[in-house]
Amino acid sequence: MRIEVFPSPQAALEAALDWLLAQLTHGQNGVLAGGETPLPLYRTLGRLTPSYRGTLFLSDERWLPPSDPGTNLYQVTEALGPLASRLLPFPLGMPPEEARAWMEQRLASHLPLDFALLGIGEDGHTASLFPGSPALVSSRLVEVVQGSKPPPLRLTLTPKAFRSTGKVLFLALGAGKRQALLRLAQGEDLPPVRVAQVAGEAWLFTDQEVA
């Protein structure tokens, strides 16, 4: 995994935006992270990529009612604006195992993915792949998991879903991510490493010095 350190969060976001625009310009299929960090990128993408014709997946989803503002679907859709029409979300109206199978079937028809934008949590998780999770070694593309932060029940893509993904970018900003990034830099086998190992190319953009 190649690590690039930027002088500020804004500089890292601008570089990540350029990276995302390059992926979307080619009409490729990819994955978008949830959480607060990438939302400014998505708001800009919605204005700059109206002609995108690929399919977008969420890296994971919190098991909440479909209209709950705490879902990744709600937050990402609101930020993407018109581009949200290209998003194929997890079907939260189904029971968890049925939703898992439904998403796995649809995701399988789009593999290998062309790109993925993912985050890194303070504990070193990415998507809803938490350290030590059985999902890290699953033979499935999608798993129902118990997260270590609320809400606990989630759906997530597994490392197998990212196998042969052309390009993966991890975006980790803020001092709260520093310890997780240091663990990665020291070679600890955290979930982002599992994803990077099966992908074609992987970068980490951060504003934290981890050398």
List the helices and strands and how they pair.
Blueprint: E1 2-5, H1 9-25, E2 30-32, H2 39-48, E3 56-58, E4 60-62, H3 72-80, H4 96-108, E5 115-119, E6 142-146, E7 153-157, E8 167-172, H5 178-185, H6 191-198, E9 201-206
Parallel strand pairs: 1-9, 2-3, 2-5, 5-8, 8-9
Antiparallel strand pairs: 4-7, 6-7
Percent in strands: 15-25%
Overall geometry comes to globular
The average pLDDT value, as a whole number, equals 94
Structural class: alpha/beta
End-to-end distance: 13 Å
Largest sheet: 6 strands, parallel
Number of helices: 6
Q: Percent of residues in helical segments?
A: 25-40%
Describe the structure.
It is a single chain. The protein has helices at residues 9-25, 39-48, 72-80, 96-108, 178-185, 191-198; strands at 2-5, 30-32, 56-58, 60-62, 115-119, 142-146, 153-157, 167-172, 201-206. It is of the alpha/beta class. Helix 1 packs across helix 2 and helix 2 (39-48) packs parallel to helix 3 (72-80). The longest helix has 17 residues, at 9-25. The protein is globular, with a radius of gyration of 16 Å. The two termini are 13 Å apart. The model has no long low-confidence stretch (mean pLDDT 94).
Q: What features would you highlight for this structure?
A:
6 helices; about 210 residues; about 30% helix
Concise summary:
It is built from six helices and nine strands, in the order βαβαββααββββααβ. It has 211 residues and is of the alpha/beta class.
